[in-house]
Amino acid sequence: MSPLLPSFPPAVLALADGTLFPGFSIGAAGHTSGEVVFNTALTGYQEIITDPSYSRQIVTLTYPHIGNVGVNTQDAESDQIHAAGLVVKDLSRRVSNFRSESSLDNYLTNAGVLGIAGIDTRKLTRILRDKGAQSGAIVAGKIGDDVQALGKQALELAKAFPGMAGLDLAKVVTTKTAYPWREAEWELHGADGKPAYKTVDQSKPLKKVVAYDFGVKRNILRMLAERGCELTVVPAQTSAAEVLAMNPDGVFLSNGPGDPGPCDYAIAAAKEIIEKGVPTFGICLGHQIMGLAAGAKTLKMKFGHHGANHPVKDLDTGRVAITSQNHGFAVDANTLPSNVRVTHVSLFDGSLQGLAWTDKPALCFQGHPEASPGPHDIAYLFDRFVALMNATKKEGK
Ligand SMILES: NC(=O)CC[C@H](N)C(=O)O
To answer: Are 100 and 69 in contact (CB under 8 A)?
Structure first.
């Protein structure tokens, strides 16, 4: 075991295929299970584990040195850690960053979330890449605990986790009540190095946007607000009638965890809103829900896309964008109706990345244009949504 963490209690990660990875417990003690996925981003561990789309997933970070910049209040993408567990190679023993408020280890512990360090994440990633994402579990014990017994328990839990297919988690992680959002992007400046948040610029023509929260990341809301959107964030199960009664200029469907297939309430709402001709934009789970609303099917990918370096081609401009990705399901390109066209494809595996409706003001993207973490190459999709709203005559105006 890694000599770097001699004073940490033992923990074992088990995969459902029977592979055991003994390591050291970081964060909370106890046990957790979920789908084990790997993320190849080099930065942004705090944004990753607080992304609600990771609910019920144990995230392996392939970058080997994690925790060195600590954690802070501003970089959380939601109000809690959503990943079911965290797997790293080396946990940085020192935290050094002017924005750091706490260590990753403490952050996990305070949130009651388990992590495991000292794992050969390259070996683990090769298994997940070759066999596909699979169920797994972490059991974290106390110093002196029998590692074999921990492993046995972890394997039982791993085998008992049913997998992500069929799981509707959007309605689990969504906000309970609607709320307004006015915070725009932030900048780092000032002697204290604290971020300064901008609010919606009232001098620009404002757009009223209703945002469905299926597990929304804050930076999406900020990037929409930055572009003059006054947002009302609504629970996942809000009906189309309620949304349309707000007379929005546009509707946004957020990212979120789980399988899009069982989200029948959201698929029905998206269908009605798109058919009404209200400009609609979806990201990740929102994109999948829009695809299902159009009559297409979704499929489970072998190991999905989780990272911040995924090349995606814009078929309209021919330009390649390096994008952030986090999804395990995808819209099946072979099932698209004739009024929906493919706008973006992944240059890693050719899978479908973006859609636009030919007869309605609607578009959606499988990856994460808000990045956080990741490059901003594809942030122009937010501008396209605003342009769609500008080009669409609102009923009654
Ligand atoms: N980031 C997301 O919205 C993920 C969507 C969906 N849960 C998937 O895994 O494909």
So the answer is: yes
Do both 140 and 202 map to the same domain? no
Mean pLDDT across 267-279: 98
- Atom number, ligand 1, closest to the C-alpha of residue 287: 3
Grade residue 201 by pLDDT with cuts at 50, 70 and 90: confident
**Domain membership of residue 32 as a residue range:** 10-160
**Which atom of ligand 1 is found nearest the CA of 215?**
3
364 is catalytic: no
**H/E run at residue 27:** strand 20-27
Report the complex ipTM: 0.97
Whether 263 is a known active-site residue: answer no
Give the model's pLDDT for residue 190: 59
The secondary element (H helix, E strand) that includes residue 385 is helix 380-391
pLDDT at 6 over 70: no
CATH number for the domain spanning 377: value is 3.40.50.880
Read off the pLDDT of residues 336-361 as tens digits, 9 standing for 90 and up.
999 999 999 999 999 999 999 999 99
Residues with CB under 6 A from ligand 1: 53, 255-258, 284-285, 326-329
Residue 132's CB: how many other CB atoms inside 10 A?
13
- Do 230 and 200 meet the contact criterion of CB atoms below 8 Å apart? yes
**pLDDT exceeds cutoff 60 at 4:** no
Catalytic residue status for 370: yes
Instruction: For ligand 1, atom 4, name the residue with the nearest CA.
Output: 327
| Angle formed by the axes of helices 380-391 and 218-226, nearest 10° | 50
User: Using CA atoms, how far apart are residues 172 and 287, in angstroms rounded to an integer?
Assistant: 19
> Could you tell me if 193 and 132 lie in one domain?
no
Task: Catalytic residue, from 82, 226, 229, 284: name it.
Answer: 284
For range 179-197, the mean pLDDT = 79
Burial call 53-89: b when 16+ CB within 10 Å, e when fewer: bbbbbbbbbbbeebbbbbbbeebbbbeebbbbbbbbb
Structure-block tokens of residue 373: 């973490």
Residue 363 lies in a domain: yes
